[in-house]
Amino acid sequence: MKAVESLLPTFTIGGTLPSYLTKLYFLSTVITSPSVRGALGTIRQIEQGSKTAVKKRKREIAAKKDNKHDMLPEMLDINADRGEKIKFTFEDINVESFGAIFAGADTTAIAINSLLYHLMRNPVAHEKATAEIDTAVANSTISMPVAYAEAIKLPYLRACINEGMRRHPTIGLTMPRVVPTESATISGFHFAPGYRVGINPAVVQYDKDVFGSDAEVFNPNTWFKADTSRIEKTMLVFGAGARMCLGKNVRPSFAIFS
Q1: Contact, 191 vs 184, CB < 8 A?
Q2: Tens digit of pLDDT for each residue in 24-51?
Q3: Sequence-ordered list of residues with C-beta below 8 angstroms from that of 123, at least 6 positions apart, any chain
Q4: What average pLDDT score do residues 84-88 get?
Q5: N or C: which terminus of the chain carries fewer CB neighbours within 10 A?
Q6: Non-local CB neighbours of 15 within 8 Å, separated by 6+ positions
Q7: Rounded distance, CA 32 to CA 25, Å?
Q8: Other C-beta atoms lying within 10 Å of the C-beta of residue 96
Q9: For residues 44-69, b (16+ Cβ closer than 10 Å) or e, as one string?
Q10: Confidence (pTM)
């Protein structure tokens, strides 16, 4: 986590600079920052550790000594069944596994911290969420440890998680898209081909026209409105469209388990 946190500011700035400055910025940062150089070494160790773990799990799955139901067996099946056809190699599995650690660790921690922070600052919401969980435990509608399929049936807990991610999105960048060759007109503004445009979730998720006049307040009841379709479309914490974050259905599960 320390290595990831050391690198995130560098990657954030580098990712928002014009492309012709990105390589120069990264190179100068590596040269001038001992913490970044050290973090890069740690990241390489994490990458190697990820590869070792994938190989170990592959052997255990083949020997039927692993019955975990997660993404890795699915990826291994895809690689075995049609990997050559869709060009999904074993190295791609290593990259995805490493990416889940690097890209998912800090962002998941931010989501959990936001949820716990706002619940602690809102005794009413905390009491209501706790009561819902206690009732589910008493009624034996959730097991210990709780399964994701059980936890998502707790509506107030889900609302708290969504509201926590709305109030403090884990990615405070525009997540830009490149305007295609035919150009684009967005909200009455014309953008020429090649321009980068994007929307920052840390801005749009505070839109009072969408989330109400109390958009700057932690309010899980927002998610119990008769029609939440517009709210859900405006939640960009995981991005949107074809490049939406693959962790969309994973990160909330960690928040539930916490």
Answers
A1: yes
A2: 998 999 899 888 888 888 888 888 989 9
A3: none
A4: 91
A5: N
A6: 22, 173
A7: 11
A8: 16
A9: eeebeebbeebeebbeebeeeeeeee
A10: 0.80
Token pair in block for residue 228: 């939440």
**pLDDT tens-digit map of 101-132:** 777 778 888 899 999 999 999 999 999 999 99
Separation CA 131–CA 138 (nearest Å)? 10
Look at the chain and count its residues.
Answer: 258
Pure H helices in 122-154: 123-138, 148-151
For residues 124 and 126, give the distance between their C-alpha atoms in angstroms, rounded to a whole number: 5
Could you give the C-alpha distances from 70 to 67, 76, 116, 215, 250, in angstroms and in order?
A: 9, 11, 26, 36, 10
| Residue 147, CB-side half-sphere exposure with 13 Å CA sphere | 8
d(CA 2, CA 40) in angstroms, rounded, equals: 11
Tracing tokens 């490049």 back to the chain, one arrives at 243
The helix or strand, by DSSP H or E, that contains position 9, with its residue range, turns out to be helix 2-16
